[in-house]
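Why should sequence recovery work at all? Because a backbone constrains its sequence more than one might expect. Tight turns favour small or flexible residues, buried strands favour hydrophobic ones, and helices have their own preferences. The token representation captures these environments compactly. In the example below, the structure is given first.
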């Protein structure tokens, strides 16, 4: 690999793993052309790290280590920095941008309508871009992969664990459009089941503790969607909720930090799929404007043994333990 600019120290170990995994049977020579790819990751946490690792591994497999170079930038949960990063990639003339998480994707799309952009760890592309009746293809220079797990099944998960609970609090970051989309949908399913629901929105890490404390005091159960700010602050949530009330999460990384159970996907797998899509675009095998958004092929029910023990609860059948 060439020209790496790694702002995320937490990814260093993961990237070294991906380097040793290249050179498989799918490796394809790109001749003299070395493609330049800009990778914008919104924030450091396990889910997004896994997606970036999967993307790099797929690109190594499909293009070869010497067939591409990348500039990995981390916005440290700052939407304004996402815009700066995207502008830098455009100025540098990259051949493709991979945007990891919704704010990074929105910033990249605002920066260029010409360079192909692929998102990953993005829940709902129609919501991210204000497209009503989204059909699955944006028809622009943007496509990618989604981290959406079935929201009706996430609501059913809460019912399976706590059928006699009455009040469910939905905790999320108000600055993430896709988080609002998820809690609205889950709330609808839960209310159909007879639960009383209330949304608790925090703006950033500065007010998450106060909002979480209010939610914990007023709820029997908490639900957190696939939310980057919550993932980055799962330790704060856990300090408030551990042993007090159960938290159900939209993805495994958040659940490992503060939850009892989740219906989750593999972020590595959707990152890898994004890398496969990128290789197709760069080699001229596909047009980004014609590529439909891709979704995870499977969803796994998982539970957090330590936090279940703290609440003295046993996971229903069919759940796998999260292994840290």
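From this structural description, the recovered sequence reads:
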């Amino acid at each position: 690999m060439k020209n790496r600019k790694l702002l995320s120290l937490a990814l260093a170990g993961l990237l070294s793993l991906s380097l040793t995994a290249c050179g498989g049977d799918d490796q394809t020579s790109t001749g003299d052309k070395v493609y330049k790819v800009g990778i914008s990751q919104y924030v450091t946490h396990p889910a997004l790290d896994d997606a970036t690792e999967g993307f790099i591994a797929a690109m190594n497999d499909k293009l070869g280590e010497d067939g591409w170079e990348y500039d990995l930038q981390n916005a440290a949960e700052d939407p304004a920095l996402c815009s700066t990063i995207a502008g830098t990639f455009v100025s540098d003339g990259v051949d493709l941008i991979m945007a990891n998480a919704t704010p990074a994707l929105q910033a990249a799309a605002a920066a260029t309508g010409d360079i192909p952009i692929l998102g990953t760890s993005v829940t709902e592309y129609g919501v991210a871009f204000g497209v009503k009746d989204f059909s699955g293809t944006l028809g622009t220079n943007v496509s990618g992969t989604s981290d959406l797990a079935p929201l009706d099944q996430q609501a059913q998960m809460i019912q399976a664990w706590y059928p006699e609970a009455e009040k469910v609090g939905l905790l999320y970051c108000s600055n993430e459009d896709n988080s609002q989309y998820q809690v609205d949908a889950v709330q609808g399913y839960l209310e159909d089941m007879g639960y009383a629901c209330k949304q608790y929105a925090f703006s950033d890490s500065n007010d998450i503790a106060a909002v979480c404390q209010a939610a914990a005091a007023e709820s029997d159960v908490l639900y957190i969607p696939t939310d980057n700010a919550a993932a980055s602050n799962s330790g704060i949530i856990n300090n408030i909720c551990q042993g007090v009330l159960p938290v159900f999460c939209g993805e495994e990384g958040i659940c490992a930090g503060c939850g009892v159970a989740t219906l989750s996907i593999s972020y590595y797998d959707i990152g890898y799929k994004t890398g496969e899509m990128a290789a197709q675009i760069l080699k001229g095998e596909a047009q980004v404007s014609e590529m439909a958004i891709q979704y995870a092929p499977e969803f796994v029910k998982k539970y957090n043994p330590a936090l279940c023990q703290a609440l003295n609860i046993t996971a229903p059948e069919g759940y796998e333990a999260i292994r840290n």
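A few observations help interpret the result. The longest strand covers residues 35-41.
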